Amino acid sequence: MKRRNTPTKAAVLSLLAGADSAMSHDMLLEMLEDSVDRATIYRILNRFCADGVVHRVLADDGKQYFALCEDCAQQTEHSHNHFHFRCLTCSRVECLGTEVSVNLPSGYRAENFNGVISGVCSRCG
Amino acid sequence: MKRRNTPTKAAVLSLLAGADSAMSHDMLLEMLEDSVDRATIYRILNRFCADGVVHRVLADDGKQYFALCEDCAQQTEHSHNHFHFRCLTCSRVECLGTEVSVNLPSGYRAENFNGVISGVCSRCG
DNA sequence: ATATTATTGCAATTAAGTCGCAATAATTGA
DNA sequence: TCAATTATTGCGACTTAATTGCAATAATAT
């Protein structure tokens, strides 16, 4: 399963790189002006996740949002224990820098972290 | 919109009260042996949420889970800043007691907190 | 007992995401 | 450079979670 470079893949990547917030499938689809099939975008994003290029956030609106793994790319222990903030007004999903550590009961092993706080951001408040 | 007491509402409430973990729609439906319509359960749970009887957790499997607001019932500031743990093996969603405080950038106002960690719990690990 | 209206059941619908499969197009190697 | 291999795409159908409209039912108040 060696990965190939395709125009669409590159386009999605550059959109994510240029974005100042996490993006959903619809947002990407819209920005690509429907020149690409929905399923293709889903698949590209899933591959990015599998490859650790991007991380996935399931927001409390039930949608998945994706953001580039910028800072965490170099780290060996690839953890995403930080929160995301979803603005109920402008519906932007942005990354809150602060890493959070939750100590689990003994015997528990964490595999995935998903923390979302929704509310109103400063520019909408 | 004054609330009425119905057998189904009481049944759902007692199931939630007796559960040691958060419950999803399907789980409730199954425990009620399909004697109640799906939509009814959804509506009852949404009313419970609106009334602050129950809190809703959106887990990273894309499903909603509901748990009684036990400890937090008496508090005036009704905050749910605690994590839930979803076991990937037994798929139980349980409440992690520890309250977490995330400090937002200035000008941000939090409305909702949704924190889920998934992994393997002690009895499955 | 009766009127009011919240709640229910049913069916249809929305929305997010996935999947199978044939067609297309990156890559690899001669 | 060209052909072979196979990852990727597009299309459509499908799955799953949850919501909604509406008529029928039943809990409450008078």
From TrEMBL, chains A, B:
Its cofactor is Mn(2+); Fe(2+); Zn(2+). Keywords: Iron, Metal-binding, Zinc. One of its GO terms (biological process) is regulation of secondary metabolite biosynthetic process. SUPFAM superfamilies: Winged helix' DNA-binding domain. Fe cation binds at residue 99. Zn(2+) binds at residues 87, 90, 121, 124. GO terms for molecular function: DNA-binding transcription factor activity; transcription cis-regulatory region binding; zinc ion binding. Binds 1 Mn(2+) or Fe(2+) ion per subunit. Binds 1 zinc ion per subunit. The keyword Iron applies. Pfam families: FUR (PF01475). InterPro entries: FUR (IPR002481), WH-like_DNA-bd_sf (IPR036388), WH_DNA-bd_sf (IPR036390). This is Transcriptional repressor.
